């Protein structure tokens, strides 16, 4: 005897086939979308990657450096002994935003010194202008590494002016040096670089953006005036008013030497 399938059975089979077809089409669409996203991401190479360093500021204005092992190191403004004006060491560092030597000095010398107890005796000033040329008549600036550097210089100088304390602005500068491509570039980098680093350093990007939009010329004029006319390279490092060759010693050693000349000392300086 031949058993005939009921119409309801055939209807169920048809419904199952339709569902299977829909699922197959959805899988094809998802795969194509994923591939398109990968291509788009690869094409936008001017967008920032996540910084290797995680530099954060806590509510007490201590600057923290989070390394790849997630250990927290503090850039501390707290006192480490007698830190009156006589035992402070003035340090001026002149840099450019897209200069590889400036990047190396900031990340290899300034950041470690800020992480050390010597931060409490260092009266640090950073100026971002370097070898740029100012034309006051035309109100233009020509930067060594192109227009993108001028743009980044302004963001960095705005951070320095708006947030004043090195424990606030150094994490922002360090983040940018860690993420911005160094070298010559004419097209300014995507704003997301600066937003990301402002968030990273717990700075209000709205204040930076307002300064960048309204005070760019003033920031560059100010930085040019602060930059020594006799400098011939960057980074240009001045300790207690005297130029020092940054290749002769670590920044921490220069600070310890300056303390000794003042007849002062710091426990960190005697650490092997």
Automatic annotation (TrEMBL):
Subcellular location as annotated: Secreted
Signal peptide annotation: 1-32
Keyword Secreted carried by entry: yes
Major subcellular site: secreted
Name of the protein in its database record: Gamma-interferon-inducible lysosomal thiol reductase
GO molecular function, one term: oxidoreductase activity, acting on a sulfur group of donors, disulfide as acceptor
InterPro entries, per the entry: Interferon-induced_GILT
Pfam families: GILT (PF03227)
Keyword Secreted recorded: yes
Keywords: Glycoprotein, Secreted, Signal
Recorded GO CC terms: extracellular region
Family in the record: Belongs to the GILT family.
Species for this entry: Amphora coffeiformis
